[in-house]
């Protein structure tokens, strides 16, 4: 939105939707990371640091501390590409 690639009519705050979305759990089939878990929380989690050190390291290196404290894992999955080609407004509005 800041680069005017998209102009949504409505922006909805979903932070209060699901408290389960902030959980980090070890399960028999792997690790469960809720969509609302922040990068900072996941990167500092003892289970992730011990059992998934590459994930913890990548989270620590992925952004500034300010962004890691606010950015959620689910939000990062949904983030648009940083490629200038796809962010070019002259290509038309990407929906």
Question: Any low-confidence stretches, pLDDT <50, length ≥5?
Answer: none
Counting H and I runs of at least 4 residues, what is the number of helices?
6
Largest sheet: 2 strands, antiparallel
Tell me the Rg in angstroms. Answer: 16 Å
CA(first)-CA(last) distance? 12 Å
What is the spatial order of strands in the main beta sheet? 1-2
* Mean pLDDT, all residues: 83
Which class best fits the helix and strand makeup? mainly alpha
Written description of the protein model:
The chain has a two-stranded antiparallel ribbon with strand order 1-2. The chain has helices at 39-44, 46-51, 53-61, 65-70, 73-78, 84-87, and strands spanning 24-27, 30-33. The mean pLDDT is 83. The protein is 39% helix and 8% strand. It is built from six helices and two strands, in the order ββαααααα. The chain has 95 residues and is mainly α.
Provide the fold topology.
Layout lengths: L23 E4 L2 E4 L5 H6 L1 H6 L1 H9 L3 H6 L2 H6 L5 H4 L8
Antiparallel strand pairs: 1-2
Task: Describe the structure in brief.
By secondary structure, this protein is mostly helical. The chain has helices at residues 39-44, 46-51, 53-61, 65-70, 73-78, 84-87; strands at residues 24-27, 30-33. It has 6 helices and 2 strands; from the N terminus they run ββαααααα.
């Amino acid at each position: 939105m800041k680069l005017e690639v998209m102009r949504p009519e409505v922006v909805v705050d979903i932070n209060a939707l699901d408290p389960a979305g902030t959980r980090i759990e070890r399960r028999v089939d792997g690790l469960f990371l809720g969509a609302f878990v922040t990068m900072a929380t996941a990167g500092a989690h003892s289970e992730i640091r011990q059992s998934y050190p590459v994930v913890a390291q990548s989270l620590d290196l992925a952004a500034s501390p300010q962004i890691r404290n606010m950015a959620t894992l689910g939000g990062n999955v949904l983030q648009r590409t940083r490629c200038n080609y796809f962010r070019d407004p002259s290509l038309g509005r990407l929906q």
